[in-house]
Give the backbone structure.
Amino acid sequence: MGPAWHGGDPALCTAVGSALVTAPKTSLTPPPGALAPQRHPEAPAPGEPIGSHYDQCFGCGTGQPHGLHLQARAGEGVNVIAEFTVTPDHQGAPGLAHGGVLASALDETLGALNWMMHVISVTGRLETDFLRPVPVETVLHLDAQVRAVDGRKIYCSATGRIGGPDGPLAVRADALFIEVKVEHFIDNGRDEEIRAAMEDPDQVRRARAFEVNP
Ligand SMILES: CCCCCCCC/C=C\CCCCCCCC(=O)SCCNC(=O)CCNC(=O)[C@H](O)C(C)(C)COP(=O)(O)OP(=O)(O)OC[C@H]1O[C@@H](n2cnc3c(N)ncnc32)[C@H](O)[C@@H]1OP(=O)(O)O
C-alpha cells in the first residue's frame, strides 16, 4: 500500500500498515481439540421457525421496516435454513444484490444457530466468498451449520444458493462466533433501546432462556 492512505500522513500510514501486517489472524479452521456441536434438547424441531431475537434487528426483526426479514427454520442437526428474496432495495449494481446485504443475510442465518445450541454468540469474524452475481427477485436459499466448538469459539459456515436448495452456489461464508452473556448487550447497547428491551418481558425471556445449558 502506498502513502495515499490516511491523507498521505506517512506516520499514520506506517503505524496502521504495520498493525495490519502484524495483527494475529485466527484460523477459521477448528483446532484439533475442538468438539462436535451439540443440538440442545430444547432446540426447535426440524422445520420449526426460529423467532426473531429482537424485533428491531436488521436481519430478522419483524418490526424493522428497513430490514431483511429473514425467517430461519431449524434443520435436522445443528443447522438452520432460510430463504431471502433480493428486492430492488438491496441493489449494489443495477439489478444485482449488494455484497454487503448478502453478507448480512449470511451473518443473520449464522446468528440463528444460537437457537440450535441455546448459546448467545456474536460474530467475531465473517469471511465471505461471492461466487455468482445475485439478481433482484432471486430467492437465495441459505443454509448455516455449526462445524465445531472450542470453548467460547463457535466455528460455523453458511451457503446461499440461487433458485432452490440445490441450486447454484452464489455465496458462502466461514465464520467464528464468540459466546457472550446477556450483559454483552446490556453493557454495550444504547440506553434507550436496552431500557425498552428490558421492559419487554418476551425479550427478557428470550435472552435469559439461552443462559441455562443442560
Ligand atoms: C434484556 C436485554 C436484551 C438483550 C437481548 C439480546 C438478545 C440477543 C440474542 C441473540 C443475539 C444474536 C445476534 C445475531 C446477529 C447476527 C450476528 C451479528 O451480526 S452480531 C454483531 C456483530 N458482532 C459484534 O458486534 C461483536 C463485536 N466484538 C466483540 O464484542 C468482542 O470482540 C467479542 C465479544 C467477539 C470477543 O471479545 P471478548 O473480550 O469477550 O473475548 P476475547 O478474549 O477477545 O475473544 C475470545 C476468543 O475468541 C477469539 N476471537 C475474538 N474475536 C476474534 C476475531 N475477530 N477473529 C478471530 N478470533 C477471535 C479470541 O482470540 C479468543 O480466543 P482464545 O480464547 O484466546 O483462543
